[in-house]
Amino acid sequence: MHRMLAALAAVSTLLSPVGATAGDDCTTGEALRIEGLGTWSEELARLADLAPDVLVPRSGILRRGAVSTRTMCEGAAVPWGERYLVDRERALDWVPPRLSMAFERTSPNGSNDGLLWQGKGLSSLVSAGIRGRWGAFSYQLAPEASWSQNADFELVDTGAAGRGEFASGFYAGRLDVPQRFGADPFSQASPGQSYVQLEGLGARIGVSTENRWWGPGIRHSVLLTNNAPGFPHLYLGTARPLDIWVGTLEAEWLVGSLTKSKYHSDPYANRAFTGLALVYQPRWVPGLYLGAGRTYIESWRSLREDWFLSALEGLTKTSAGGDNPADNQLLSAWFRWVMPDVELYGEYAQDDFPTFNSFLRQPDRCAAWVLGFQKRITTGGRWWRVIGETSKTDSNLEGAFACSFYLHAQNTDYSHEGQLLGDWIGPGADSQYLAVDVFTRGGRFGGFLERVRRNQEVYWQRRPAGEVKGHDVEVVLGLRQVLFLRTAELFWNLAAGPRFNRDFIRDEFVLRAGLTVTPVLGGRGAAPRAE
């Protein structure tokens, strides 16, 4: 018996994670509240993952930025982390009001801004609400409203009249992303980042209109981002990583409804969205997270016929016509590897149903990917952050146009209310992003350089006929700051640079600016969204 116990102890020692830090055993300390997707507290928690003995548990980025709390180890020093410390969650609390304003000099060009559509000219968004928790029940009601000046600029000629004039210049009928939302200023409203949730037995279930972000990217992600407004959905998933002996597992399944804009050819043909995402952390490699996600867009009839389990279908079509000929599948796999002071991450995705042979022959066809890193550097009480990230949705070889990422049959548009659900750069594009910021007790200041090349598949299609003269490329240099004051939190950003051959029409000089103001309620910071 003693020999058996000794053998089990030896095996347990061998199976224990190698290189675990003392922070993995941290069980005491104050709670750091993460306010949601794209907020300052989410930025801080993501960076603090790279600091040993600061935050536990680390995150596999399944539901990036979900409203939650993380334990901050006792005595840990985090720049402006005290602004988001919470003693307990109340039954009734405020979601502080927030006002965001943006200016675009030449043409629409927003990114990861949810309901806000940044057309030419001035745009604005306001939100506020309440939230709370009673035992296993929690909620947040945070409606949003936006307004856009939507000033006039030269459009790509669609050859259509009326509302069709404003539809996508290159993908009309296949992707509902209008060039412009009509000829006049417009406003819209939504329930915003709202949810009602029950949690227990290691699981959570709820109804929500929050934005979802699946994948490890900071600036880009393929399947789901906060580029479009959040859509109404039902979700079921793990409340925390589940111990499965060989590691931990997180999972989330959701089903929701997508709405088309009135500038689509069939604005009343709403679609069903369903998806499943998993994140596995191997027991023997601390800080490594392996994820996979699958999303479907199809008719509600098709989803019902599949018993709402489309995401569990085989990875290839079972007949020439397909199981659901009019559906659209996206499949993605990703990793995040968190080490002391640095993280590496990447994502690779396929559009529609590939075959094994086609994947081996052309893995870049119908494909998109994201690759990046984040580095933490400490100097005294300051934290420096360096982010490098590149993404690509230009999925075809030169001259080919048989498969385009995010584009599929009519009425399976990968969009909601006229904005793309996935990577904001859109189909046939690539981007490179480098940012440096310094975090201090008073906020954050930094700059970035970004290059985006758009509509490459259109370029290669039209180039042989001489219809385009050059690539559509934008290069901007920007500054930004988060400033914590006694009564408010301020964010501003300013970016400028050339855009060559915009939409294959003309060269333009880009100038954009933004300002977000959030009052401090109850003596503690809120958390406006980051840009």
With helices defined by DSSP (H or I, 4 residues minimum), what is the helix count?
5
Quantity of strands, as a count: 27
**What structural class do the secondary elements suggest?**
mainly beta
- Summed up, the domain count is 1
> Alpha-carbon distance between the termini?
61 Å
Query: What share of residues is helical?
Result: under 10%
Task: Provide an overview of this structure.
The protein has 5 helices and 27 strands. The chain has 531 residues and is mostly beta strands. It has one domain: Porin (Beta Barrel), CATH 2.40.160. The strands form 3 sheets. It has an 18-stranded antiparallel barrel. The longest helix has 14 residues. The protein is globular. It starts with a helix and ends in a 12-residue tail after the last strand. The N terminus and C terminus are likely disordered.
Task: Please provide a brief summary of the model.
The protein is mainly beta and 531 residues long. 8% of the residues lie in helices and 43% in strands. Mean pLDDT is 85; it is low at 1-23 and 523-531.
Write the topology of this structure.
Elements lengths: L1 H14 L13 E6 L5 H9 L6 E2 L11 E6 L11 E2 L6 E12 L16 E14 L2 E5 L2 E5 L37 E5 L4 E6 L2 E6 L24 E6 L3 E2 L3 E12 L12 E12 L5 E11 L1 H6 L22 E12 L2 E10 L4 H6 L5 E13 L2 E11 L22 E2 L2 E2 L9 E11 L2 E12 L1 H7 L9 E13 L3 E15 L3 E14 L12
Antiparallel strand pairs: 1-3, 1-4, 2-3, 5-6, 5-27, 6-7, 6-8, 7-10, 8-9, 10-11, 11-12, 12-14, 13-14, 14-15, 15-16, 16-17, 17-18, 18-19, 19-20, 20-23, 21-22, 23-24, 24-25, 25-26, 26-27
